[in-house]
Amino acid sequence: MKRVRIVSGMRPTGPLHLGHLHGVLDIWKKLQEEYECFYFIADWHALTTEYEDPSRIRDYTKEIMLDWLAVGLDPDKATIFLQSEVKEHAELYLLLGMITPVSWLERNPTYKDMLQNLTGKDLAMYGFLGYPVLQSADILIYRAHKVPVGLDQVPHLELTREIARRFNYLYGNNFFPEPEALLSESAKVLGIDGRKMSKSYDNAIFLKDSPEEIRKKVLAYVTDTLRPKKSDPGDPENRCVAFNLMKLYYNEEEKKTIIEDCKKAILGCVECKKRLADRILRFLEPIQTIRASLQKKGKWVEILREGTMKARKEAAMTMDEIRKVVFKREIL
Description:
Helix content is 56%, strand content 8%. By secondary structure, the chain is mainly alpha-helical. The protein has two domains: 5-189 and 299-327, HUPs (Rossmann fold), CATH 3.40.50.620; 209-291, Tyrosyl-Transfer RNA Synthetase. It has a three-stranded parallel beta sheet with strand order 1-2-3. Strands 4-5 form a two-stranded parallel ribbon. Helix 1 (18-31) links the parallel strand 1 (5-10) and strand 2. Helix 8 (131-140) crosses helix 9. The longest helix is centred in the C-terminal third of the chain and has 29 residues, at 269-297.
């Protein structure tokens, strides 16, 4: 029996951090056990904002692959590939662009939000406006049944469903399935300053950070600002940013003890964060060990190449059928 197919990707615009690990990759690891998963490095999508200096995309592609494999994405269970090496994505992008109304793209909430908030970048480009069409091509070229998304990404997927619906209406045969949202309860990981962890905010703990860097960053985390002295009682559940991170690395009994000791002014913030740093380091140690081994052997290159070949074969078969449906002819 054919398994349900899932497609998801990640842009290579910077090193991966704890937010990526607990917010996305932990979910991807679970999905690969149950579904037929296609995970891709979206280097064409990276160009929508990094077009002026694309030189770093290659380096970040390597970093992402090392991190993906180190945390447990398994090439024997999922197809892992590079978007720009599967040209069928671009061909379908062009065809879908022919039938997608501009008004659909202009109403995209992310488009409006990034235009307003990404200062210092000129994003008034066709590629940036049209990236949801490329995103749709990424999904539809594999006839995906489901796409793992958070609530904020549901409008993006709905646009893909609308494009698939329009294609099916114009060319018949219900060619594309309308991919459904696989809503995931991802961990909300806050950065050092209390905002969402992001490289753009310079508040992230990266998976490849050294022990010294991790300790320094954890100690810089905002704690209870209404607790200036250790002798003052704290409220970690409501006023401590660092406690948000602790919830990921401590069990229920340990969290209960931290809350009680903080409220009783037994446990100071500095000591609490030192313990948290130790816990994070123990958690990341096997990941970093695997990562170093993969980098030394260069095995990640072959894994990416093999996954890309598999994705290319699948995409080529779909594209052959699309040409017949659109142009009503066999391949010349």
